[in-house]
Write a structure and sequence with these properties.
The complex is a heterodimer of chains A (about 400) and B (about 80).
Chain A: E1 6-14, H1 21-30, E2 36-37, E3 50-51, H2 65-68, H3 73-89, H4 95-99, E4 101-106, H5 112-124, H6 134-138, H7 142-151, E5 157-160, H8 166-179, E6 185-192, H9 197-206, E7 229-237, H10 238-243, E8 250-259, H11 270-283, E9 290-294, H12 303-315, E10 323-325, H13 328-331, H14 338-352, E11 354-355, E12 378-379, E13 384-391, E14 395-402
Parallel strand pairs in A: 4-5, 4-6, 9-10, 9-13
Antiparallel strand pairs in A: 1-7, 1-8, 2-3, 6-7, 8-14, 11-12, 13-14
Chain B: H1 3-17, H2 30-33, H3 37-51, H4 57-60, H5 66-79
The chains are: A alpha/beta (about 400), B mainly alpha (about 80).
């Protein structure tokens, strides 16, 4: 079987920007950040206070109490996003389709809250035992497993963990399995719930989290803002989607990966540039066809200028007329869910012909002197877009998308 | 800026970087010592533990060497700018 075209026919999302796709898109259009004081736990012992919490997420709206016991918050996000994606795609399951479908999720840290609670019981409260559900709730593949049990999807199902690139790697793997004919359908994306005391203290110690908000590409940026949430996408071969009359959000055309082979936390120009070039080559795209980049754009001192330099290195003169934005300025940095959330943002941007802005923008940084779409969304009919994730550990994953014109 | 403070800072750097204290002087730059940004946050962690204080980011921005580090700590310790942990 030759290479098939792969389209996205369903999307589901849980984030700081609302309960669903519509609320997410509206916030992006308005350039409205979902960043505020974290309320999930007592933050008095943490230096930073703000995060992009999934403010409107209420477990009881989605899971009976008994079922919720088996799911850490990060797995709940994955399941809810998957349910919404399946509904959005209008899928009708048959035994044959379930066998030929697969699931790939990304998660950086797994069930951290569950683990934290267990450790508090052991070390702080000196209890002699932890919950027997600790392992099953904590494992990074919990989201994928629960989605499988709920949908009945019984083909290849697994989880990728590559820090902040996790769900871009997950989507890329799923894309290739559908393209190559290994799968008739994939549910792919990622989820993360990083707001637990032990984990927040670990981020505090790294000194990369902003004390106020996330200002990617600004001269006065002060770091990233952690976010939580999940996004899942339904990927199908174009012909199958057409045959069942599915509404198509957009096409995934390429995927590129690389490793910096350099440093745990310091980014390089060449590593990300190589992943971008690989995504273009995989999709048979020229730099001139790219009109929008959903940047990694963490808002840290180190990332942003390096990413701008990498864009120039990868795209050459075409970079100068590109529109680039970091939607992390609104939904925060959701680590292993970031790529999936940003894939949704990128597909919506292509479909609606409106580019979401880099919010919270104040003063331009001469080291980030490309068009970063400050504060205001912009109408632009863009043919193709890239969405980039560059992880700690130097692992890079870039997806290439094309607008679907029907 | 006391000799004792200098000695403790150098000892923290030596211990966290796994290098002999004798190779570090007040005039050593982090670059000379092969200390990068991730090593830097490790050193701050060691210093916070050694002096039982919290060192705010603002207090150490732009610190590129041992002398600057000692001066920044001296300032924090004497001004009470570093909240006791």
């Amino acid at each position: 079987m030759g290479r098939r075209r792969v389209v996205v026919t369903g999307m589901g999302i849980v984030s700081a920007l609302g309960r669903n796709l519509d609320e997410f898109w509206r916030a992006l259009l308005e350039g409205r950040p979902g960043i505020g004081p974290i309320t999930l736990l007592d933050m008095s012992a943490v230096r930073f206070q703000n995060g992009a919490q999934a403010w409107s997420f209420n477990s009881a709206d989605h899971f009976p109490l008994k079922e919720a016991d088996f799911l850490d918050r990060f797995a709940q996000f994955a399941v809810v996003a998957a349910r919404d994606a399946v509904r959005d795609a209008g899928l009708e399951w048959t035994p044959g389709l379930r066998e030929r479908s697969g699931i790939v999720t990304g998660s950086c840290v797994g069930g951290k809250s569950t683990e934290d609670e267990g450790f508090q019981n052991l070390y702080l409260l000196k209890k002699p035992r932890v919950s027997p559900l600790t392992i099953a709730r904590t494992m990074a593949n919990a989201g994928a497993s629960h989605i499988s049990m709920e949908t009945g999807i019984c083909g290849p199902t697994y989880t990728v963990s590559t820090a902040c690139s996790s769900s871009n790697h997950a989507l890329g793997q799923a894309f290739r399995m559908v393209r190559d004919g290994d799968l008739e359908l994939a549910l792919a994306g990622g989820s993360e719930a990083p707001f637990s005391m032990g984990h927040l203290k670990a981020w505090e110690a790294m000194r990369v989290v902003s004390p106020d908000t996330c200002r990617p590409f600004c001269k006065d940026r002060r770091g990233m803002v952690l976010g939580e949430g999940g996004a899942m996408l339904v990927l199908e071969p174009l012909e199958a989607a057409k045959a069942r009359g599915a509404r198509i959000h957009g096409e995934i055309v390429g995927f590129g990966m690389s490793s910096d082979a350099h440093h745990l936390t310091q980014p390089t120009v060449e590593g990300p540039a190589r992943a971008m070039r690989a995504a273009l080559a995989d999709g048979g795209l020229q730099p001139e066809q790219i009109g929008y980049i959903n940047a990694h754009g963490t808002g840290t001192l180190a990332n942003d200028p390096t990413e701008i330099a990498a864009l120039r290195a990868a795209l050459g003169p075409a970079a100068e007329r590109l529109a680039i934005s970091s939607t992390k300025s609104m939904h925060g940095h959701a680590l292993g869910a970031a790529g999936a959330i940003e894939a949704v943002a990128t597909l919506l941007a292509l479909r609606h012909g409106i580019l979401p802005p880099t919010a919270n923008f104040t003063t331009p940084d001469p080291q980030c002197d490309l068009d970063v779409v400050p504060n205001q969304a912009r109408h632009a009919a863009v043919e193709c877009a890239l969405s980039s994730s560059f992880a700690f550990g130097g692992l890079n994953a870039v997806l290439a998308f094309r607008r679907w014109d029907g | 800026m006391s000799d004792e403070l200098t000695r403790r800072v150098i000892s923290c750097i030596a211990e966290s970087q796994k290098i002999p204290a004798e190779t570090i002087t007040l005039d050593s730059t982090f670059e000379e010592l092969g200390i990068d940004s991730l090593d830097g946050v490790n050193i701050l962690f060691a210093l916070e533990n050694e002096f039982n204080i919290n060192i705010p980011d603002e207090g150490v921005q732009g610190v590129r060497g041992v002398r600057q580090m000692v001066e920044a700590l001296d300032k924090l310790l004497s001004s009470g700018g570093a909240a006791r942990a």
